[in-house]
């Protein structure tokens, strides 16, 4: 399809006009509309099709359960009316419309947002790095969408399985362990994941089965000590607007959103972190020669030595999730470069595949001593509803 453009100055004027009209209306603003006006006014949105897609997504938030809010009449402009187009990415929808405010102004109550996921995308890449002879990292990305059309409406359901493992051990053993763990977990959820997000007990069972598979192979090969193969694990399961996270070892999950900024979701299973949790000062904990030695990994020991961390979150805002091996996280690389390499990826017009490539290039430039793997997940949640108070906090 040939993309249409109109004069950039006209669109900026339109965005500025909408902002002015909203301000004059003195109504509590819906965050998605306010953000759309801002994007048009500053020239971030310059294509009619892109504007129409965002308007369509916002309109979906007001499907009948309550009457849609009344917006001010806008005067005609020279901008061309957008033609309807199909959304270019997966749209996942559930839930009801946004509840109306009981009162308006500074004392307006907090609105309970509907649970509605509008978009989900993912990308992954792994690289051998600049010093290793083999790539012992392994990852899997598996997602599906079910769509139902009926006289009563449309419903969609998303399932996403994301696994990243960083293997270790003797000759060629690390890559065997990481692949075996990933495949064991993937096969488990093929038969144990149906119509709702798996429970914590099921997630633990899948991880224990992966540990047992590697442990049994070590026993069969009479491996001992440092010759025993093993692997780290970080796992994300997404079911519509719910997500489960689990990990063993020092492979990490980061979360980024405009509201919360960058967060490291997982805590490394290593000696330094263990000492910090016991109350030791971080500088002292990481002065130990064994500070970065793993306290947990899949495979070297039996199930009595494995206790994965499992947690849950809701996908209720635009956010980016990054699963990564330590080849990408060493030397605080993510904390140092998130503004240039993660924040732009929250814009749905930017390519996740290209973003994954740029993360690999970044790690090779500053680290490169280890294998590097990055798996990106981008979710679009429901529009934020702004009250006067959080409008002020956003400005600050």
What is the gist of this entry?
The protein has 396 residues and is α+β, with helices and mostly antiparallel strands. The protein has helices spanning 8-25, 31-41, 48-60, 173-192, 200-220, 271-277, 282-285, 326-329, 333-341, 352-366, 388-395, and strands at 119-127, 137-150, 153-168, 230-231, 233-239, 242-248, 252-257, 261-264, 309-314, 319-324, 372-380. It has two domains: 8-90 and 386-395, no CATH class; 119-380, PPM-type phosphatase domain (Phosphatase 2c, domain 1, 4-Layer Sandwich).
What's the layout of helices and strands?
Layout: H1 8-25, H2 31-41, H3 48-60, E1 119-127, E2 137-150, E3 153-168, H4 173-192, H5 200-220, E4 230-231, E5 233-239, E6 242-248, E7 252-257, E8 261-264, H6 271-277, H7 282-285, E9 309-314, E10 319-324, H8 326-329, H9 333-341, H10 352-366, E11 372-380, H11 388-395
Antiparallel strand pairs: 1-11, 2-3, 3-4, 3-5, 5-6, 6-9, 7-8, 7-10, 10-11
Helix pairs in contact: 1-2, 2-3, 4-5
Description:
With 396 residues, the protein is α+β, with helices and mostly antiparallel strands. The protein has two domains: 8-90 and 386-395, no CATH class; 119-380, 4-Layer Sandwich (Phosphatase 2c, domain 1). The protein is 33% helix and 22% strand. The protein contains eleven helices and eleven strands. It has helices spanning 8-25, 31-41, 48-60, 173-192, 200-220, 271-277, 282-285, 326-329, 333-341, 352-366, 388-395; strands spanning 119-127, 137-150, 153-168, 230-231, 233-239, 242-248, 252-257, 261-264, 309-314, 319-324, 372-380. The strands form two sheets. Strands 2, 3, 4, 5, 6 and 9 form a six-stranded antiparallel sheet that branches. It has a five-stranded antiparallel sheet with strand order 1-11-10-7-8. Helix 4 (173-192) runs antiparallel to helix 5. The longest helix is centred in the middle third of the chain and has 21 residues, at 200-220. It is globular, with a radius of gyration of 24 Å.
